[in-house]
Write a structure and sequence with these properties.
337 residues; alpha/beta; Rossmann fold; 3-stranded mixed beta sheet; 11 helices; binds nicotinamide-adenine-dinucleotide; binds uridine-diphosphate-N-acetylglucosamine
Protein backbone atom coordinates (compact mmCIF):
# COMPACT_ATOMS: atom_id res chain seq x y z
CA UNK A 1 0.00 0.00 0.00
CA UNK A 2 1.20 3.51 -0.84
CA UNK A 3 0.81 5.99 1.99
CA UNK A 4 1.16 9.75 1.47
CA UNK A 5 2.54 11.60 4.47
CA UNK A 6 1.95 15.34 4.28
CA UNK A 7 4.46 17.01 6.59
CA UNK A 8 6.30 13.69 6.70
CA UNK A 9 9.74 15.32 7.04
CA UNK A 10 8.76 16.73 10.45
CA UNK A 11 9.26 15.32 13.93
CA UNK A 12 6.26 12.97 14.19
CA UNK A 13 6.01 12.31 10.44
CA UNK A 14 9.62 11.09 10.16
CA UNK A 15 9.19 8.59 13.01
CA UNK A 16 5.90 7.40 11.51
CA UNK A 17 7.53 6.97 8.09
CA UNK A 18 10.10 4.61 9.62
CA UNK A 19 7.41 2.51 11.35
CA UNK A 20 5.36 2.35 8.13
CA UNK A 21 8.37 1.18 6.09
CA UNK A 22 9.12 -1.46 8.73
CA UNK A 23 5.49 -2.60 8.57
CA UNK A 24 5.75 -3.09 4.79
CA UNK A 25 4.00 0.06 3.54
CA UNK A 26 5.46 2.26 0.80
CA UNK A 27 5.90 5.89 1.79
CA UNK A 28 5.52 9.10 -0.19
CA UNK A 29 6.34 12.35 1.62
CA UNK A 30 5.07 15.80 0.64
CA UNK A 31 6.65 18.56 2.72
CA UNK A 32 7.59 22.17 1.95
CA UNK A 33 10.45 21.94 4.50
CA UNK A 34 9.18 25.12 6.18
CA UNK A 35 9.92 23.49 9.55
CA UNK A 36 12.16 20.55 8.63
CA UNK A 37 15.22 19.48 6.70
CA UNK A 38 15.64 17.34 3.58
CA UNK A 39 18.43 15.51 5.42
CA UNK A 40 15.75 13.57 7.30
CA UNK A 41 14.66 11.73 4.13
CA UNK A 42 17.88 9.73 3.78
CA UNK A 43 17.82 8.96 7.50
CA UNK A 44 14.25 7.62 7.22
CA UNK A 45 15.42 5.41 4.34
CA UNK A 46 18.41 4.23 6.36
CA UNK A 47 16.23 3.26 9.36
CA UNK A 48 13.30 1.90 7.34
CA UNK A 49 15.55 -0.08 4.97
CA UNK A 50 13.75 1.13 1.82
CA UNK A 51 13.42 4.16 -0.47
CA UNK A 52 10.90 6.95 0.05
CA UNK A 53 9.43 9.17 -2.69
CA UNK A 54 9.91 12.79 -1.65
CA UNK A 55 8.06 15.83 -3.05
CA UNK A 56 9.15 19.28 -1.86
CA UNK A 57 5.68 20.72 -2.03
CA UNK A 58 3.34 23.11 -0.25
CA UNK A 59 0.28 20.92 0.29
CA UNK A 60 -1.91 24.03 -0.04
CA UNK A 61 -0.93 24.08 -3.74
CA UNK A 62 -3.78 22.39 -5.65
CA UNK A 63 -1.83 21.91 -8.89
CA UNK A 64 1.14 20.37 -7.10
CA UNK A 65 -1.08 18.02 -5.11
CA UNK A 66 -3.04 17.05 -8.21
CA UNK A 67 0.22 16.22 -10.00
CA UNK A 68 1.44 14.14 -7.06
CA UNK A 69 -1.80 12.14 -6.91
CA UNK A 70 -1.63 11.60 -10.70
CA UNK A 71 1.97 10.34 -10.53
CA UNK A 72 1.58 8.13 -7.46
CA UNK A 73 -1.06 5.51 -6.82
CA UNK A 74 -2.01 6.72 -3.31
CA UNK A 75 -4.06 4.35 -1.11
CA UNK A 76 -4.22 6.41 2.09
CA UNK A 77 -2.94 9.67 3.58
CA UNK A 78 -1.60 10.74 6.93
CA UNK A 79 -1.96 14.48 7.34
CA UNK A 80 0.79 15.93 9.54
CA UNK A 81 1.45 19.16 7.59
CA UNK A 82 0.70 22.25 9.59
CA UNK A 83 2.17 25.02 11.69
CA UNK A 84 2.19 24.15 15.37
CA UNK A 85 3.53 26.93 17.61
CA UNK A 86 0.76 28.11 19.92
CA UNK A 87 2.27 31.52 20.79
CA UNK A 88 3.05 32.27 17.14
CA UNK A 89 -0.55 31.39 16.22
CA UNK A 90 -1.80 34.06 18.63
CA UNK A 91 0.55 36.64 17.05
CA UNK A 92 -0.11 35.55 13.43
CA UNK A 93 -3.61 34.03 13.38
CA UNK A 94 -4.22 34.59 9.68
CA UNK A 95 -1.02 32.76 8.72
CA UNK A 96 -2.13 29.82 10.86
CA UNK A 97 -5.68 29.69 9.53
CA UNK A 98 -4.48 30.09 5.93
CA UNK A 99 -1.82 27.40 6.12
CA UNK A 100 -3.51 24.81 8.32
CA UNK A 101 -7.02 25.10 6.91
CA UNK A 102 -5.86 25.32 3.29
CA UNK A 103 -3.66 22.26 3.78
CA UNK A 104 -6.59 20.25 5.16
CA UNK A 105 -9.02 21.43 2.47
CA UNK A 106 -6.62 20.91 -0.43
CA UNK A 107 -5.74 17.43 0.77
CA UNK A 108 -9.39 16.38 1.19
CA UNK A 109 -10.41 17.84 -2.18
CA UNK A 110 -7.51 16.15 -3.95
CA UNK A 111 -8.31 12.85 -2.24
CA UNK A 112 -11.93 13.16 -3.36
CA UNK A 113 -10.92 13.92 -6.94
CA UNK A 114 -8.63 10.88 -7.06
CA UNK A 115 -10.93 8.52 -5.15
CA UNK A 116 -8.73 8.13 -2.06
CA UNK A 117 -10.87 7.36 0.99
CA UNK A 118 -8.56 6.98 3.99
CA UNK A 119 -6.99 9.80 6.00
CA UNK A 120 -5.36 9.82 9.42
CA UNK A 121 -5.20 13.33 10.87
CA UNK A 122 -2.80 14.87 13.43
CA UNK A 123 -5.16 16.45 15.89
CA UNK A 124 -4.18 17.45 19.40
CA UNK A 125 -5.23 17.27 23.02
CA UNK A 126 -5.35 21.04 22.71
CA UNK A 127 -8.96 20.58 21.43
CA UNK A 128 -9.94 19.78 25.06
CA UNK A 129 -8.98 23.33 26.13
CA UNK A 130 -9.13 23.48 29.91
CA UNK A 131 -10.57 20.06 30.79
CA UNK A 132 -13.36 19.78 33.35
CA UNK A 133 -12.14 16.33 34.38
CA UNK A 134 -8.96 14.25 34.03
CA UNK A 135 -8.26 11.78 32.56
CA UNK A 136 -10.01 13.19 29.47
CA UNK A 137 -11.82 10.82 27.19
CA UNK A 138 -12.87 11.47 23.59
CA UNK A 139 -16.38 12.57 24.59
CA UNK A 140 -15.12 15.46 26.74
CA UNK A 141 -16.22 18.98 25.83
CA UNK A 142 -13.98 20.55 23.22
CA UNK A 143 -13.04 24.21 23.21
CA UNK A 144 -9.85 25.97 22.16
CA UNK A 145 -7.89 28.82 23.64
CA UNK A 146 -5.76 29.85 20.62
CA UNK A 147 -5.85 29.92 16.78
CA UNK A 148 -3.61 26.84 16.47
CA UNK A 149 -6.11 24.86 18.52
CA UNK A 150 -9.03 26.14 16.45
CA UNK A 151 -7.37 24.92 13.24
CA UNK A 152 -7.37 21.41 14.76
CA UNK A 153 -10.96 21.77 15.94
CA UNK A 154 -12.13 23.02 12.53
CA UNK A 155 -10.18 20.40 10.59
CA UNK A 156 -11.82 17.73 12.74
CA UNK A 157 -15.26 19.20 11.96
CA UNK A 158 -14.56 19.34 8.22
CA UNK A 159 -13.53 15.68 8.25
CA UNK A 160 -16.62 14.74 10.26
CA UNK A 161 -18.86 16.50 7.71
CA UNK A 162 -16.98 14.93 4.77
CA UNK A 163 -17.60 11.47 6.26
CA UNK A 164 -21.34 12.17 6.49
CA UNK A 165 -21.41 13.07 2.80
CA UNK A 166 -19.25 10.14 1.66
CA UNK A 167 -19.96 6.86 3.39
CA UNK A 168 -16.81 5.26 1.97
CA UNK A 169 -14.55 7.86 3.55
CA UNK A 170 -12.61 6.96 6.69
CA UNK A 171 -11.10 9.75 8.85
CA UNK A 172 -9.09 8.98 11.97
CA UNK A 173 -8.72 12.03 14.23
CA UNK A 174 -5.72 11.25 16.42
CA UNK A 175 -5.52 13.55 19.44
CA UNK A 176 -1.90 13.50 20.53
CA UNK A 177 -0.96 14.36 24.07
CA UNK A 178 2.71 15.45 24.58
CA UNK A 179 5.06 13.65 22.18
CA UNK A 180 8.70 13.58 23.30
CA UNK A 181 11.73 11.32 22.80
CA UNK A 182 13.38 10.19 19.60
CA UNK A 183 14.18 7.05 17.61
CA UNK A 184 16.50 4.88 19.72
CA UNK A 185 19.18 4.99 17.00
CA UNK A 186 19.67 8.71 17.64
CA UNK A 187 19.43 9.30 13.85
CA UNK A 188 16.07 11.14 13.84
CA UNK A 189 14.49 13.36 16.49
CA UNK A 190 12.94 16.72 17.23
CA UNK A 191 14.82 19.70 15.76
CA UNK A 192 12.99 22.89 16.72
CA UNK A 193 13.98 26.13 15.04
CA UNK A 194 14.87 29.00 17.36
CA UNK A 195 14.08 28.90 21.06
CA UNK A 196 12.06 25.76 21.88
CA UNK A 197 8.51 26.36 23.14
CA UNK A 198 8.06 22.90 24.57
CA UNK A 199 9.53 21.43 27.72
CA UNK A 200 11.62 18.46 26.56
CA UNK A 201 13.49 20.17 23.69
CA UNK A 202 14.27 23.02 26.07
CA UNK A 203 15.64 20.60 28.70
CA UNK A 204 17.80 18.83 26.12
CA UNK A 205 19.21 22.14 24.86
CA UNK A 206 20.11 23.05 28.45
CA UNK A 207 21.79 19.65 28.77
CA UNK A 208 23.90 20.22 25.63
CA UNK A 209 24.81 23.76 26.76
CA UNK A 210 22.86 25.70 24.15
CA UNK A 211 20.67 27.27 26.90
CA UNK A 212 21.76 28.28 30.39
CA UNK A 213 18.80 27.09 32.45
CA UNK A 214 15.21 25.99 32.22
CA UNK A 215 12.41 28.33 33.31
CA UNK A 216 9.76 26.31 35.12
CA UNK A 217 6.50 28.10 34.42
CA UNK A 218 4.93 28.29 37.87
CA UNK A 219 5.02 26.09 40.98
CA UNK A 220 1.74 27.22 42.51
CA UNK A 221 -0.62 24.92 40.59
CA UNK A 222 -2.88 22.55 42.46
CA UNK A 223 -0.66 19.53 41.66
CA UNK A 224 1.55 17.34 43.90
CA UNK A 225 4.66 19.55 43.47
CA UNK A 226 2.92 22.70 42.22
CA UNK A 227 4.16 22.40 38.60
CA UNK A 228 2.01 21.58 35.54
CA UNK A 229 1.13 17.95 34.85
CA UNK A 230 1.05 16.41 31.33
CA UNK A 231 0.81 13.08 29.56
CA UNK A 232 4.18 12.60 27.82
CA UNK A 233 4.25 9.94 25.12
CA UNK A 234 7.28 8.49 23.32
CA UNK A 235 7.24 9.54 19.66
CA UNK A 236 7.93 5.94 18.53
CA UNK A 237 4.86 4.70 20.46
CA UNK A 238 2.92 7.54 18.81
CA UNK A 239 4.25 6.53 15.38
CA UNK A 240 3.09 2.93 15.96
CA UNK A 241 -0.32 4.34 16.89
CA UNK A 242 -0.55 5.72 13.33
CA UNK A 243 0.16 2.31 11.81
CA UNK A 244 -2.59 0.82 14.02
CA UNK A 245 -4.99 3.63 13.08
CA UNK A 246 -4.32 3.09 9.39
CA UNK A 247 -5.10 -0.63 9.71
CA UNK A 248 -8.34 0.18 11.53
CA UNK A 249 -9.33 2.78 8.92
CA UNK A 250 -8.93 0.25 6.09
CA UNK A 251 -11.99 -1.64 7.35
CA UNK A 252 -13.94 1.08 9.22
CA UNK A 253 -15.41 3.93 7.18
CA UNK A 254 -16.64 6.95 9.14
CA UNK A 255 -15.00 9.45 11.44
CA UNK A 256 -13.29 8.24 14.63
CA UNK A 257 -11.56 10.44 17.22
CA UNK A 258 -8.96 8.71 19.37
CA UNK A 259 -6.64 9.90 22.15
CA UNK A 260 -3.01 8.88 21.82
CA UNK A 261 -1.52 9.23 25.28
CA UNK A 262 -0.25 6.98 28.06
CA UNK A 263 -2.86 7.82 30.69
CA UNK A 264 -0.11 8.86 33.14
CA UNK A 265 0.57 12.41 34.30
CA UNK A 266 4.05 13.75 35.10
CA UNK A 267 4.89 17.19 36.47
CA UNK A 268 7.54 19.51 35.05
CA UNK A 269 9.85 18.68 37.96
CA UNK A 270 9.20 14.93 37.52
CA UNK A 271 10.50 15.31 33.96
CA UNK A 272 13.54 17.34 35.03
CA UNK A 273 14.43 14.72 37.65
CA UNK A 274 13.76 11.80 35.29
CA UNK A 275 16.05 13.39 32.67
CA UNK A 276 18.78 13.93 35.29
CA UNK A 277 18.50 10.35 36.55
CA UNK A 278 18.37 8.71 33.11
CA UNK A 279 21.34 10.63 31.73
CA UNK A 280 23.43 11.64 34.74
CA UNK A 281 23.24 15.34 33.83
CA UNK A 282 22.18 18.20 36.10
CA UNK A 283 19.52 20.51 34.64
CA UNK A 284 19.68 23.96 36.26
CA UNK A 285 16.28 25.61 36.52
CA UNK A 286 14.50 28.65 37.97
CA UNK A 287 10.86 28.99 38.90
CA UNK A 288 9.20 31.81 36.96
CA UNK A 289 5.64 33.08 36.48
CA UNK A 290 3.00 30.86 34.94
CA UNK A 291 2.86 30.85 31.12
CA UNK A 292 -0.39 32.51 30.04
CA UNK A 293 -2.86 30.00 28.66
CA UNK A 294 -1.26 26.97 30.35
CA UNK A 295 -3.47 24.21 31.68
CA UNK A 296 -2.86 22.87 35.20
CA UNK A 297 -3.28 19.13 34.59
CA UNK A 298 -3.97 17.24 31.38
CA UNK A 299 -3.67 13.52 30.73
CA UNK A 300 -5.50 11.05 28.56
CA UNK A 301 -7.95 8.28 29.08
CA UNK A 302 -6.22 5.94 26.58
CA UNK A 303 -8.81 3.10 26.73
CA UNK A 304 -10.47 3.71 23.36
CA UNK A 305 -7.16 3.36 21.48
CA UNK A 306 -6.59 0.01 23.15
CA UNK A 307 -10.15 -1.14 22.46
CA UNK A 308 -10.40 -0.07 18.81
CA UNK A 309 -6.80 -0.17 17.61
CA UNK A 310 -5.29 -2.76 19.95
CA UNK A 311 -2.59 -0.17 20.61
CA UNK A 312 -1.17 1.16 23.81
CA UNK A 313 1.96 3.11 24.68
CA UNK A 314 4.75 0.89 25.97
CA UNK A 315 7.79 3.05 26.54
CA UNK A 316 8.62 4.55 29.93
CA UNK A 317 9.52 8.07 30.94
CA UNK A 318 13.14 6.82 31.31
CA UNK A 319 13.09 5.63 27.67
CA UNK A 320 11.79 9.05 26.61
CA UNK A 321 14.53 10.92 28.52
CA UNK A 322 17.33 8.57 27.40
CA UNK A 323 16.32 8.66 23.72
CA UNK A 324 15.91 12.45 23.72
CA UNK A 325 19.43 12.84 25.05
CA UNK A 326 20.87 10.22 22.69
CA UNK A 327 19.44 12.19 19.74
CA UNK A 328 20.57 15.56 21.13
CA UNK A 329 24.16 14.57 21.95
CA UNK A 330 24.62 12.82 18.60
CA UNK A 331 23.14 15.83 16.76
CA UNK A 332 24.02 18.88 18.88
CA UNK A 333 22.75 21.17 16.11
CA UNK A 334 19.87 18.98 15.02
CA UNK A 335 19.92 18.35 11.26
CA UNK A 336 22.30 21.25 10.93
CA UNK A 337 19.93 23.95 9.69
P1 LIG B 1 6.75 19.51 12.59
O1 LIG B 1 6.72 20.98 12.43
O2 LIG B 1 8.04 18.86 12.95
O3 LIG B 1 6.17 18.80 11.28
C1 LIG B 1 5.21 19.41 10.46
C2 LIG B 1 5.76 19.37 9.04
O4 LIG B 1 4.80 19.97 8.16
C3 LIG B 1 7.07 20.14 8.87
O5 LIG B 1 8.02 19.29 8.27
C4 LIG B 1 6.70 21.32 7.96
O6 LIG B 1 7.77 21.66 7.09
C5 LIG B 1 5.51 20.76 7.21
N1 LIG B 1 4.54 21.74 6.71
C6 LIG B 1 3.91 22.74 7.37
N2 LIG B 1 3.07 23.39 6.54
C7 LIG B 1 3.17 22.77 5.32
C8 LIG B 1 2.56 22.96 4.05
N3 LIG B 1 1.67 23.93 3.84
N4 LIG B 1 2.90 22.13 3.03
C9 LIG B 1 3.81 21.13 3.21
N5 LIG B 1 4.42 20.91 4.39
C10 LIG B 1 4.10 21.72 5.43
O7 LIG B 1 5.61 19.14 13.68
P2 LIG B 1 5.30 17.77 14.39
O8 LIG B 1 5.62 17.94 15.83
O9 LIG B 1 5.89 16.65 13.64
O10 LIG B 1 3.73 17.77 14.27
C11 LIG B 1 3.06 17.10 13.22
C12 LIG B 1 1.57 17.39 13.33
O11 LIG B 1 1.12 16.96 14.62
C13 LIG B 1 1.22 18.87 13.23
O12 LIG B 1 0.01 19.00 12.51
C14 LIG B 1 1.03 19.28 14.67
O13 LIG B 1 0.14 20.36 14.79
C15 LIG B 1 0.45 18.03 15.28
N6 LIG B 1 0.68 17.92 16.73
C16 LIG B 1 1.94 18.02 17.21
C17 LIG B 1 2.15 17.94 18.57
C18 LIG B 1 3.54 18.06 19.15
O14 LIG B 1 3.67 18.28 20.34
N7 LIG B 1 4.60 17.91 18.38
C19 LIG B 1 1.07 17.76 19.44
C20 LIG B 1 -0.21 17.64 18.91
C21 LIG B 1 -0.39 17.73 17.53
C1 LIG C 1 1.84 23.00 24.33
C2 LIG C 1 0.73 23.81 23.73
C3 LIG C 1 -0.36 22.87 23.24
C4 LIG C 1 0.22 21.87 22.24
C5 LIG C 1 1.37 21.13 22.93
C6 LIG C 1 2.05 20.15 22.03
C7 LIG C 1 0.80 25.98 24.89
C8 LIG C 1 0.09 26.89 25.83
N1 LIG C 1 0.24 24.76 24.70
O1 LIG C 1 1.28 22.25 25.36
O2 LIG C 1 -1.41 23.58 22.62
O3 LIG C 1 -0.76 20.94 21.83
O4 LIG C 1 2.34 22.08 23.39
O5 LIG C 1 2.71 20.83 21.00
O6 LIG C 1 1.80 26.33 24.31
N2 LIG C 1 7.13 24.25 30.62
C9 LIG C 1 8.03 24.89 31.43
N3 LIG C 1 9.11 25.50 30.84
C10 LIG C 1 9.32 25.51 29.50
C11 LIG C 1 8.37 24.84 28.66
C12 LIG C 1 7.29 24.24 29.27
O7 LIG C 1 7.88 24.90 32.66
O8 LIG C 1 10.30 26.10 29.03
C13 LIG C 1 5.98 23.54 31.25
C14 LIG C 1 4.62 24.06 30.82
O9 LIG C 1 4.20 25.10 31.65
C15 LIG C 1 3.77 22.79 30.97
C16 LIG C 1 4.75 21.65 30.63
O10 LIG C 1 6.05 22.20 30.83
O11 LIG C 1 3.34 22.63 32.27
C17 LIG C 1 4.64 21.16 29.20
O12 LIG C 1 4.75 22.27 28.32
P1 LIG C 1 4.82 22.09 26.72
O13 LIG C 1 5.87 21.11 26.39
O14 LIG C 1 4.93 23.45 26.13
O15 LIG C 1 3.42 21.42 26.35
P2 LIG C 1 1.93 21.90 26.70
O16 LIG C 1 1.91 23.08 27.56
O17 LIG C 1 1.22 20.70 27.18
Amino acid sequence: MNILLTGGAGYIGSHTAVELLKAGYDVIIADDLSNSSEEVISRIEELGGRRVSFYKLDVCCREGMDRLFSEQDIDACIHFAGKKAVGESVAKPLEYYRNNMDATMTLLETMEKHGVNIVVFSSSATVYGIPELVPVDEKATRWCTNPYGWTKYMSEQIMRDACVANNELSCMLLRYFNPIGAHESGRIGEDPRGIPNNLMPYISQVAIGRRERLSVYGNDYNTPDGTGVRDYIHVVDLAKGHVAALRYAETHPGCTAINLGTGKGYSVLDIVHAFEAANGIKIPYVITDRRPGDVETLYADPELAEKLLGWRAEKTIEDMCRDTWNWQRNNPNGYGN
